[in-house]
Amino acid sequence: MTKEERIDNMLKLSGTDVRKCMKCGKCSGRCPAYKDMDIKPHQFVSLLGKGKIEVLLECNAIWNCLSCMACVERCPRGVAPANVVEAVRETVIRMQGNNGIKAEDIPPIVDELIPQQLLVSAYRKYNR
Ligand code: SF4
Ligand code: SF4
């Protein structure tokens, strides 16, 4: 996959329009994991918009994001920084060759309290 194809793929995975960002930084101001993010939420949006994905693919922030969606709620432009973080995370996992959960890897009972829907959606998500 070329770099351009990868950028295009990440934009599609995120499902958000990074061009609408007005660089106000409000998303980062609301982020509860701010201190642990070496790349801040608004920078995810900005860097993907500029096609500077190398730094995104190497950052630790994707593992520290809490997926709380506070940045999405705060954005006055309807941009979803959390989706960009998720798109980068998925891309890294795919590049590592871990894009897949085999049915036989899932034990019959994972946890009695985990809803069935969660397992099905995780199975679908990681087998795309
Ligand atoms: S979803 Fe992630 S990036 Fe967005 S506010 Fe929550 S922790 Fe921060
Ligand atoms: S809150 Fe929205 S518009 Fe402001 S920097 Fe973040 S993504 Fe961009």
Verbal overview:
The chain is an all-alpha fold. The protein folds into two domains: 3-97, Alpha-helical ferredoxin (Fumarate Reductase Iron-sulfur Protein, Chain B, domain 2, Orthogonal Bundle), CATH 1.10.1060; 100-128. It has helices at 3-14, 26-30, 41-50, 53-57, 61-64, 70-74, 81-95, 116-125. The longest helix is centred in the C-terminal third of the chain and has 15 residues, at 81-95. It is globular and about 45 Å long. It starts with a helix and ends with a helix. One iron/sulfur cluster is lined by residues 30-33, 41, 65-71, 81-82, 85.
Layout: helices, strands, pairs:
Blueprint: H1 3-14, H2 26-30, H3 41-50, H4 53-57, H5 61-64, H6 70-74, H7 81-95, H8 116-125
Helix pairs in contact: 1-7, 3-7
Bound molecules: iron/sulfur cluster (SF4) (2 copies).
Ions, cofactors and other ligands present here are:
iron/sulfur cluster
In CATH, what is the class of the largest domain? Mainly Alpha
Total of domains: 2
Compressed to H and E, one letter per element, the order equals HHHHHHHH
Tell me briefly what this model is.
The chain has 8 helices and no strands. The chain is mainly α and 128 residues long. The chain folds into 2 domains: 3-97, Alpha-helical ferredoxin (Fumarate Reductase Iron-sulfur Protein, Chain B, domain 2, Orthogonal Bundle); 100-128.
Main attributes?
128 residues, mainly alpha, Fumarate Reductase Iron-sulfur Protein, Chain B, domain 2, 2 domains, 8 helices, 0% strand, globular
